[in-house]
Request: fold
Amino acid sequence: MMKAILARTYGSPEVLTLEEIEQPTPGDDQVLVKVHAAATNPSYWHRMEGKIPMLRKMYGDPQPTDYAMGGDCAGTAVAVGKNVTRFAVGDAVFGAAKGAFAEYAIAAEKNLVHKPESVSFVDAAAIPTGGLTALQGLRDYGRIAQGHRVLIIGASGGVGSYAVQIAKSFQTHVTAVCSTRNIEMVKRIGADAVIDYTQQDWDGAGPFDLILDMVGDRPFDLYVKNLTSNGRMVSVGALGVDMMAFMAKMGAYKASEEEEKVFSFVAQFNTDDLSTLAQLMASGVVKSVIDRTFPLAETAAAMALQGSKQISGKVVITT
Ligand SMILES: NC(=O)c1ccc[n+]([C@@H]2O[C@H](COP(=O)([O-])OP(=O)(O)OC[C@H]3O[C@@H](n4cnc5c(N)ncnc54)[C@H](OP(=O)(O)O)[C@@H]3O)[C@@H](O)[C@H]2O)c1
Reply:
C-alpha cells in the first residue's frame, strides 16, 4: 500500500484527497519510481478543474475516471520491467511518471533519465515540463541562434525561468518581462534586461529575433510588429487570458496571413531532450528556481498556489 493524492471529482484544490491505495506494478517497459519530489504544473490545474472539454474527454466526463494526479518527478527506481535496459533498481531518475503525487509512481522508460548526482531531487523534479517546453519552444520553433535578441514574456514562471537560462546558453541577449517582485530573480538567472510590465509595456522595446510568450493577452499582430524581418514569435501559453478564449484566438489566427511568423506547440516528452536538460543542470548552466516546497499531505495548498499564477519558478511536493 502507499499514500497518494487522488482527484475523484473535478473542482478546486479541495477535491484532492490523500488516500491509501495499492502500490502499482510496472509493466514490461516501465519503471516503478519511489517518488522523492514532484512538481506542480498549470496542466495539472486544468486537469483538476475539469473546465476544458478536450481534457474532460481524456480524463472522464462528467467526472474523472482516472483519479491520478501529477507527472513531473524525481526519485529512485525500485522495480523495473523485463524490457527496461537503461535503468536498474537503485538508480536516481527524473522525468514524468503517472500519478507522481504519491509515494510511488509508474513511468515509461522513455520518459525518464538519470538524475545528475550534483542535482537535488527537488531541483530535478521541477524541470521536466517547464524545461522541455522552454527548450523545444526556443530551439525547435523559435530557431534560436547566437547573437539573437530574445524577448521572454512570463519570464518568472515555471517555463520562463528555464527559458531565460536556456536562451542565455545559446549566447543571446535576453529581455525578460515580469512583475516588480520578480525583477531580481530574473536578473540573477541571467536576463540582460528586464521589463516590469506593471510599469512599462514591452511593445516598442524591440525589434526581437525571437519572442517566447507565456501570457497570450495581446493581439498576434502586435507581437509580429515587434519582430525583425526574419523574427519568430512562439506562443507557449495563456497566463494572462482564459484558456478557452486563447485557444479560439489561436485557431482564428492560424488562418491569417501572419501564420509563418507565429508558432504554437505542445511540448513533447522524449529521452534526448530530457538528457539535454540533465546535462544543462549537471554543468550548472541551468538551475531550478524553487518558490516553495510542500509535503505530500499539503498538495491541495501547493495546487492552490499553482492556480494563483503567482509562482516564481516552481512549486515542488516532497514525499
Ligand atoms: N505549450 C505547451 O506545451 C505548454 C507547456 C507548459 C506550460 N504551458 C502554458 O504556458 C503558460 C506558462 O506556464 P508556467 O508553468 O510558466 O506557469 P506558471 O509557473 O504558473 O507562471 C507563473 C508566473 O507567471 C507570471 N505571470 C502571471 N501573469 C502574468 C502576466 N500577465 N504577464 C507576465 N507574467 C505573468 C507570474 O509572474 P509575475 O508575478 O512576475 O507576473 C508568475 O511568475 C501556462 O499558460 C501554461 O498552461 C504550455
Q: What stands out?
A: The chain has two domains: 2-127+288-318, 130-264. The first strand starts at residue 2 and ends at 7. DSSP finds ten helices and 15 strands in the chain. The chain has a mean pLDDT of 96.
